[in-house]
Amino acid sequence: MIFGASGDLTHKKLMPALYSLMLRRLLPAKFAVVGVARTDGDDDSFRNDMKAAVQRYARDEFREDVWGDLAQSMHYVATDFADDGGENTLQELLTRCDEERGLGGNRVYYLAVPPPAFPTIVEALGKRRSAEGWTRLIVEKPFGHDLASARELNHLLWKHFDEQEIFRIDHYLGKETVQNMNALRFSNGIFEPIWNRQFIDHVQITVAESIGIEARAGYYERAGAIRDIFQNHLLQLLALTAMEPPIDFTAESVRNEKVKVLKALHTPGPKSVVRGQYGRGFIEGEEVVGYREEEGVAPDSMTETFVAAKLYVDNWRWADTPFYVRMGKRLARRETTIAIQFKRAPHPPFGETASEGLRPNVLLVHVQPDEGVSLAIGAKVPGQGMQIRTVHMDFLYGGAFRTGMPEAYERLILDTMLGDGTLFTRADEVEEQWLLVDAIVAAWQRDRPSFPNYAAGTWGPPSADDLLHRDGRSWRRH
Ligand code: BG6
What are the pLDDT digits (tens) for 393-426? Predict the structure, then answer.
């Protein structure tokens, strides 16, 4: 059951994901999709609307036969869940689906609605839990606005659902390349011995987007980059990079290790976090407006569209090793990378001039685009004499594997049906993430930067560069 069935996420991600799963015969034979939203409609209008969405957004080519199989399992109920009787209609439909399709009372509820709608729906679902089968609840972001509201939401969910039944989405965890971070670290013997403060100089994590806020001013004005990306995707990437090897890959073991990193995470002070907001500029040669000129944004908005920070993980593995992170909208290009920058070789035996073109080793995980991993190493330039230069050993997904890359939502929806929470965030992780964000936001109240402070199409404000220059370092070149 998808709550928010007429929304953007359902059109762009959820239904295309279900279609791709159906195409690969990964959906169970006993299956039905029930769309729920306030918008008027019936089964036919829902099917037509979703067909258009799948044709537009699915990664796979459209096949009538596959769509036909999916469409015949789809139903729609228009209700606001208040007192329009929708709850009863829904209940009757579910009972019918159980009887006709043999669903055995198993339910996946997907909350793809704005947070103010959560309480009514969760209470209603809680009251009518099916006596048979299992129940799972997927909760879309934003999961709260700060620590207090996230805790309140957790308590609301726990009133009716066990923690094991709750699947908090962070769609970055469903990305193949993010899961590959675990494969890279824990299926190769060569990395773990050097994955620590003795060999690693620092880590850089970039989540850059060239798009603006699209039509989401209402949400983004309240969220900003710190809540939209830093609080969830960015901190999860950091946790996966820094965590200890889990004893196995079960949800509990992996999340136990991640939460330890999040607990140990801190910023050394207000000067270690910078924020920015884009002004006018050019993206791929096209002029674009500044954030304050976007539709629905206040002309004097102080919402940040860029954040860069220096963070430390206070434990034996990472003490004194900076994690520099940056994220933002309307940056020069779309790029999500994790760069592990190793220390320089201890002594240059060929002399300083021979190694002028040599940079320290970097293991670069390309989360997107150009998914893959590359290792920067020094190599001799062919010719007489000894000149060393940096070259790259590359692994590209596109070249190594013939299969296409699944969308994150395919994996996450399937994992929910299987009851596997490994790629979802647990309550304590979310709360630790908010704790850090709340501290940063509180410090921000004390000053008022002059926005806009970076032009669209650049790599953020100059203060982001200063953050690293102060430490004698710089952001990875693009
Ligand atoms: C979402 C944010 O969680 O992630 C968006 O709300 C952002 O603002 C998106 O654009 C980025 O996701 P992806 O998968 O395109 O990197």
Answer: 999 988 899 788 899 999 999 999 999 999 999 9
Evaluated on CA atoms 368, 372, 373, 378, the torsion sign reads: negative
User: From the CA of 206, how far away is ligand 1's center (Å)?
Assistant: 13
- Spell out the domain ranges in the chain: 2-168, 173-469
Residue 297 pLDDT:
97
Which residue's CA is minimally distant from atom 2 of ligand 1?
A: 228
Q: Which two tokens stand for residue 16?
A: 């295309």
φ, ψ for residue 135 (rounded to 5)? Answer: -130, 135
Give one DSSP letter per residue of 213-280, joined into a string. -TT-HHHHHHHHHIIIIIIIIIHHHHHHHHPPPPSSSSHHHHHHHHHHHHHHEE-S-GGGEEEE-EES
Q: Is 209 in the pocket of ligand 1 (CB under 6 A)?
A: yes
Q: Evaluate whether 355 touches 346 at the Cβ level (below 8 Å).
A: no
Of 250, 288, 258, 285, nearest to 452 by C-alpha is: 288
Please work out whether the CB of residue 407 comes within 6 Å of at least one atom of ligand 1. Answer: no
CATH number for the region 173-469 comes to: 3.30.360.10
Q: 2-168 domain in CATH 2.30.30.50?
A: no
Active site residues: 233
Q: Report how far ligand 1's centroid is from the alpha carbon of 338 (Å).
A: 17
SS3 assignment, position 300: coil
State the Cα angle at 187 between 239 and 204, rounded to 5°: 35
What pLDDT shows up at residue 478? 61
8-state DSSP, 477: P
Low-confidence stretches of the chain (pLDDT beneath 70):
83-84, 478
Q: What integer pLDDT is reported at residue 402 of this predicted model? A: 79
- pTM, two decimal places: 0.96
- Report the pLDDT value the prediction gives residue 356, as an integer from 0 to 100: 83
Alpha carbons 261 and 313: distance in angstroms, whole number: 7
Distance CA 457, CA 100 (A): 54
- Ordered DSSP codes for 68-95: HHHHTTEEEEE--SSSSSHHHHHHHHHH
Atom 8 in ligand 1: which residue has the minimum CA distance?
228
The span from the CA of 387 to the CA of 72, in Å, is 66
